[in-house]
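Posting this for the archive.
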Amino acid sequence: MSRFGDWFESRLPIGRTLRGMLDEEVPGGAKFVYALGSATLLTFLVLAVTGVVQLFFYAPTTAAAYASVNYLRFQVPFGWLVHGLHYWAATLMVVLALLHLVQVFLWGAFKKPREMTWILGVLLLLGTLAATYTGNPLAWDEKGYWAARVGAGIIGSVPLVGGWLRDVVFGGTIVGQLTITRFFGLHIAVIPLLIGSIIALHLITFRKEGAAGPIRPSTKTGAFYPDQVLRDLIVFAVVLVVLVGLSAFLLTPVTGPADALDASYVGRPDWPFLFIFQLLKYLPGQLEVVGTIGVPVLGTLLLLLVPWLDRSPERSPAKRPAVLAIFVVVSGALVALSILGAQTSTPAAVAPVGPPGPTPEASIVSTPPGPGPSLASNQVGGAAHGQELYVLYCQECHGARGVKGVENPGSADGEVPSLNPIDPALAGKTRQTFVAGLDTFLQNGSVPSESTSTPNASPRLKMPSFGNTNALTQPQIADLEAYIMQLNGVDRAAIARPGVVPKTYFWISLVGLAIVVISGSAAIVSVERGR
């Protein structure tokens, strides 16, 4: 080592510490299942890196947050990948943290003297859930906005301190700019610092006491390097393949811009909170606080106290039947509630029954188009909610899924125009002209041409002005436009500048990561044979 290296190592012994970690023996030998903790750390690092990149594009205001996220997703080269990795890594980190906690519980690795390692693991799971929840409203889309609204109501219902907590976390009774400001600070600073600190302490306690090893006593050992490191590397490659695949094939969901006036949108929580969502359906109004506050608090306390509730020195699940039975019952209940919550569908929108009546003149506004594009035409709407709005406001005249309009005596065509397919002369053929043409009709309405075969006959049905009369909000019109475009095979949320086409990027990544997996597997076989 050089003189500078010796000087540096004598004052900051990174090399000696690293060598000590790599040379450590793994009780029972290296195993792929031991990589769960390392994989959880990997997802946190992915979240940290992609989160920092997103900060260069994100605007934490109610007016610009949604547009800034969409600019990153659809306009910035590889922005879809950055945002997708962040979105799916958040989900995967919850999954991996849960699996790691279950593994430690079943193997009895929380028992004395590793109680503190278990407690820090539980706190890490809670911090991950908090990061997941606070991240959703930052996009300021329908899903995130209504999740914040529901959360504000839940925290406000906490006895004695509920109002104070709601004001601190959400910025008051109204979910708005203060909410997004508070969540932004929590999500990018407070919670990551807490999670990072918990991970550091978790690693320290783990290093102090060492790995618990297999359930049954074993004299077999294996070196952390290269045995466990190679297995960790393979698991890392698989995790990255999964994240890139989800980002490329599923992208990230588009639910439309947040709309406080849209009472037709039914919010649903993310999957980690579905069991509470379902549990509340079985509790009367006065007992809702039991589901929203009591169950989570009690469950957290029980998790933290596990080392003292299961004090038997036995680690094998077979020798802990009572504990295993409780685990199966509680886990089964949580999974069942979550599945039921996921399967519960929102009430389907129902179109008005019977033939449509004449269009009221009050809904026809002849205001010409404004000097510039409307707010809706510049927003990427959510097609799923747009379908619900279509059923409520458009299907009665234009037909189910826009396939065939109803009769309209007095008009030149004799029927309301079909929207599936729509006349290219009305909406254009490119995405930009489609949006502009469709938006003009939704904002300003339209009066059909009169029939030439029946003199003085006026069309019975006219296109109402949804925008000028404020019958629909601009976010709702954006959702409607997204759905009608979807019917015509036009993707409102198409990626304009991908850098590399997402699916192509996935196959390239798959080849590279497959090489890592194959090389790592070959190295493991070589090491095992060399012993």
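Residues 177-209 form the longest helix (33 residues). Strands lie at 25-27, 221-223.
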